[in-house]
Structure formats: structure tokens, C-alpha cells
């Protein structure tokens, strides 16, 4: 699609917001969502818009990450994106953070498995194959221990993401079956890459009540588990 896109990514510790057109990233701000991250997001967006002389009506779409990832970050980012889209009558696009990380390695013709650190010795994982302006999900997003994931992966699988880097040693024990992309710049989802997915037609705008879109947590929040006495 054409036009300007405001994209918001708050699933990872290093969150970002970006303004992009079909040809380039016009502005991108990065910040940590820990502690004061929620208060920094709206001013960061406003500064980028002011620098470019833009109003919300100038955007053709708003895009946001849906998770999995930081529970607090996802609530803040998705809530802001939904509010802006609804208040200004702008189409809203949402994409999983695992898809965003996989897209960082989309030039590979092999199956790509993005892995994000889920803590407790587990990773968020999914599988994708890219071709043209479309992708196929070969494994649904899940949370799993690296040693349990290993036998599920096909030969020549491409592993990317912070989880792939953290548990690279475990996967290396399987020999040369996998290829791990250890570049930190490709390990996390980014707002500018989210906008690129929309511009290239990989995603469809949400149809219906945008306020009904919920984060993709996969795992229940830590506070909820503690409240119910589960570990």
C-alpha cells in the first residue's frame, strides 16, 4: 500500500516507533519500555510528527506489534495504536513480533524460525517461509524449551532472534543441522520493519472493531501466575 504509516513496536525491551513511506523510513525513535517507557512513547511519536510537519490525518495506516513479548509493553503499545486508529478513522494493521523477527531474515529460501527469550528457560517460537509478497506459517507461535524445540526443527532451519543467540550453544549440539543468524541488529522486532510488511502487502488491515484486538501473550502474565499460585 502507499502513503505514510505510523508503526509502533513495544513487545521487546528495545521498543520503537517509526514513520515511513513506501520508499524509506522518515523517522524512527527507539527507547526501553522498562519503568517510564509507557510515558515516553506518545511524546516520541509527537516529536517525530512535529519534525516532519505531520498530523494524524496524514497517515494512511497505523501498524502495531501484537506479541508475544513484554506484557506491559504490549498493553501500552496496542492500546495507543487502537485509540489513534479509532479516533482518526485510520486503518489498523497488527503483526506478531515473531513474524517481525522472521522478516529480518526473509531473504533466506529456507524455513525461518524466530526465537524470542520467554525467560524461565523457554523461548517464544514460530516457523515461517517467505516467497514474493506473502508468507506461510509453518509452525504456530508457541512457548517451548529449546531442548524440546530442537527435534521439531527441519534440517537447514534458519534460527534468528535474541532467543536463538542466547541458546545458540544448545542448538549447536545438533551439529550443522541449523544456521543461526547471530547479528544483534536482526535479533529484535523493529517498528520500521513492521511498516515495510504493510507497504509490501504482507498484512491486511483489521476489519471490525479495532478495540477488540488483543495482545498475543501465548503465556499468561507473571502476576496472574503468582496470584493463582502457579509457577
TrEMBL record:
List the GO terms this entry assigns under cellular component, sorted alphabetically.
Answer: cytosol
Annotated PANTHER family? TRNA N6-ADENOSINE THREONYLCARBAMOYLTRANSFERASE, TRNA THREONYLCARBAMOYLADENOSINE BIOSYNTHESIS PROTEIN TSAB
The segment(s) forming the Gcp-like domain are 39-150
Gene Ontology MF annotations: transferase activity
- Which InterPro entries does the UniProt entry name for this protein? ATPase_NBD, Gcp-like_dom, T6A_TsaB
Q: What is this protein called?
A: tRNA (Adenosine(37)-N6)-threonylcarbamoyltransferase complex dimerization subunit type 1 TsaB
Q: Which UniProt keywords apply?
A: Transferase
Record's NCBIfam families? T6A_YeaZ
Superkingdom is Bacteria
Q: Which GO terms describe its biological process?
A: tRNA threonylcarbamoyladenosine modification
| Pfam families (UniProt xref) | TsaD
What does the record give as the organism's lineage? Bacteria, Candidatus Glassiibacteriota
